[in-house]
Amino acid sequence: MNDFVARPEHGIAWISGASSGIGRALALKMASEGYKVAVTARDHEKLAELQSEANGLAGSIIVLDGDVTNPEDMEHVLASIEYEHGALALAVFNAGIYLPVHAEELRREDFERSFAVNLQGVVNCLVPAVRHMKHKGQGQIAIVSSVTGYGGLPTGAAYGATKAALINMAESLKFDLDKMGIRIQLINPGFVDTPATRKNEFPMPSLIPVDEAAAEIYAGLKSKSFEITFPRRFTYTLKALNLLPYSLYFWLVNRATGWQERPRADGRRPVTPSPAE
C-alpha cells in the first residue's frame, strides 16, 4: 500500500469539473486549507467567479480552462501546471454529467455524451497526471464515482454505467499505482444536493448539502482509505442491497423509489404481466 498523503507544501491540487457542485465546493475548501488549486471546466466565467471568491483564503485558485472530453486540452492543463505553477501533488477527477435515461425513449446521444464526459473525460485527465506523478515518484489521485455505480437504479442506465466503470478502473489501477508511489482513491458519494441530482425523478434519501460533501471528501483525502463514501449509513445500505438476489433487489428498489407505480415516460400505461398458464 502507498502511504503518500498530499499536503499543500507538496505542490498543486488539480480539480476537474470545478465550475459547480462538488468540484466547486471542494476547491474552496482546499483553498481555505492552504492549497494552491488549479480548477478546470468549460465555463470560464464561473471559474473566474470561483477564483474571486477564494480571495483572502490561505491558499488560492488558478483558472485553467479546458474540456475534459478533449485530450489535448487536458495535456495543455497539465503542462501549464507543471511549467508555470509547480509540481502536481493531488488530482481530483470530478467532472461529470447526469442525463436521465428512460427505456421507453432511448437515445444514443445520452449514452455517448455520458461516456465521453464521465468515463473518457477521466481517462483524458488521468493519462497526463500519471505520467507527471510517475516522473516525480509520488502523487495522489482521487476519482469521483458514485454509489449509483454499485447497482442499477431507475433512469441511471448511462450515468450508472459510467460510474460502475470508474469503480472498476480505480480498483484495477491501484495494483500498479501503488508500486509507482502514486496513491489512488475512489470517491463514492451518496445523494448530494447539486444541479445534477436535482434531475432525479425519485426520492433521494440522506440527501446532504454540497459543503458537507466537500468536507467529507477533504477529510477522506487526508485518510489512508481507498474508498471515500458518505453518508455511510446510506451508502453501506446500498452496498448490502447489491448482495441480495436480483429478485429481492429489484423488488426493494421498486418499493423504495415507487418506480413500478409511476407512469411510463412515453405516456402509455404500464404493461400488466399476463398470468402464467
Keywords:
277 residues, alpha/beta, Rossmann fold, seven-stranded parallel beta sheet, 8 helices, globular, disordered C terminus, SDR_fam, oxidoreductase activity
The fraction of residues assigned to DSSP E strands is 5-15%
From N to C, what is the helix and strand string? EHEHEHEHEHEHEHH
Task: Round the Cα radius of gyration to an integer and report it.
Answer: 20 Å
Average pLDDT figure: 91
What is the CATH topology descriptor?
A: Rossmann fold
Biggest β-sheet description: 7 strands, parallel
* Share of helical residues: 40-55%
Question: Superfamily at the CATH H level?
Answer: NAD(P)-binding Rossmann-like Domain
Distance between the termini: 58 Å
Number of H- or I-type helical stretches: 8
Strand order of the largest sheet: 3-2-1-4-5-6-7
Number of strands: 7
Secondary structure class reads alpha/beta
Query: Which architecture would the CATH scheme give at its second level?
Result: 3-Layer(aba) Sandwich
Instruction: Name the CATH class.
Output: Alpha Beta
Q: How many structural domains in the coordinates?
A: 1
General shape: globular
Poorly predicted regions: 273-277
What this model shows, in words?
This protein has 277 residues and is α/β, with parallel strands linked by helices. It has eight helices and seven strands, in the order βαβαβαβαβαβαβαα. It has a single domain (8-261), classed as Rossmann fold (3-Layer(aba) Sandwich), CATH 3.40.50. The N and C termini lie far apart (58 Å). Mean pLDDT is 91; it is low at 273-277.
